[in-house]
Design brief:
- The protein has a domain at 53-222: MetI-like fold (Orthogonal Bundle).
- The relative contact order is 0.13.
- By secondary structure, it is mostly helical.
- It is built from eleven helices and no strands.
């Protein structure tokens, strides 16, 4: 009985979450110009989207910021997790973890306004670099929290064994540590990418004239009435997200298989 209730609840939850998304995507193919009624199937809104050079430029800006910020944040977060894991003092580790969590628990409005004040005081012009630096900053704690638990589960004797067999520290890191942490690194990257892609509050504060991201543009258009071109763009982004999830799943499965093969060879 409990299993049936759990399944019904799960289905109900999924319907609530995904029904608005599918409703939005459905009207991306609407022949009409609004979401009042579906008047027929058409790809006209997708053609309008691809002919809108301004919107394409905004999408490119958003993707570029998301990719660069998540990549840099993943690298910094990886070494940050390694640093915290190697601390011998638990008190020092807890202090660094608390500092790492500040950006996670702080409201986006506070973070955005803080970055705005910082850039203003430093005389840093608002635009691409200010948005990129802000996204890197709030993505690093996410990556650290994704990698650190996995790192703490690792048997450190594997590194010592690799060094005893003649491997240098760099070789041990590349051959032992990185393969073990790869699933968490990928998770951290995709989480940072997602956070950057849909961030609005922080970006709204630190973006300048002449540079816009997708979330800020959608907000600006929503105040005037969103046209179905945004629906078409949302459909494409949803499809892109599904592709990213599939790629992440395949990479994770491949990494697990390689780890099993590696263990078999060691044995």
């Amino acid at each position: 009985m409990n299993k049936i209730i759990s399944r019904v609840y799960l289905i109900f939850l999924l319907v609530i979450l995904y029904l608005p998304i599918f409703y939005l995507i459905l009207f991306a193919f609407n022949e009409g110009d609004n979401m009042g009624a579906f008047q027929g199937f058409s790809l006209g809104h997708f053609r309008d989207l691809f002919s809108d050079t301004r919107m394409i430029s905004i999408v490119i800006n958003t993707m570029l910021i998301a990719i660069l910020s998540s990549l840099i944040a993943t690298i910094i977060g990886l070494f940050g997790a390694l640093f915290i894991d190697r601390l011998k003092s638990k008190r020092a580790a807890n202090i660094y973890l608390s500092l790492n969590d500040v950006l996670l628990v702080s409201p986006d409005v506070i973070i955005g306004s803080s970055f705005l004040i910082l850039f203003t005081v430093l005389g840093f012009s608002l635009g691409f670099m200010s948005v990129l630096l802000s996204h890197i900053a709030f993505s690093i704690p996410i990556v650290v929290l994704m990698i650190l638990p996995r790192l703490q589960e690792m048997n450190k004797s594997m590194i010592d064994a690799a060094q005893d067999l003649g491997a240098t520290r760099i070789q041990a890191f590349n051959k032992v540590v990185l393969p073990f942490l790869l699933p968490s690194i990928l998770t951290g990257f995709f989480m940072a990418f997602t956070y950057s892609l849909d961030d609005f509050a922080v970006t709204f504060f630190v973006t300048g004239n002449g540079f816009e991201t997708l979330s800020v543009e959608v907000y600006s258009q929503a105040r005037q009435g969103v046209n179905l071109e945004i629906n078409a763009l949302s459909a494409l982004i949803f499809g892109f997200s599904l592709i990213m999830i599939i790629i992440y799943y395949l990479l994770t499965v491949r990494n697990k298989k390689s780890v099993r093969v590696g263990k078999g060879r060691i044995i």
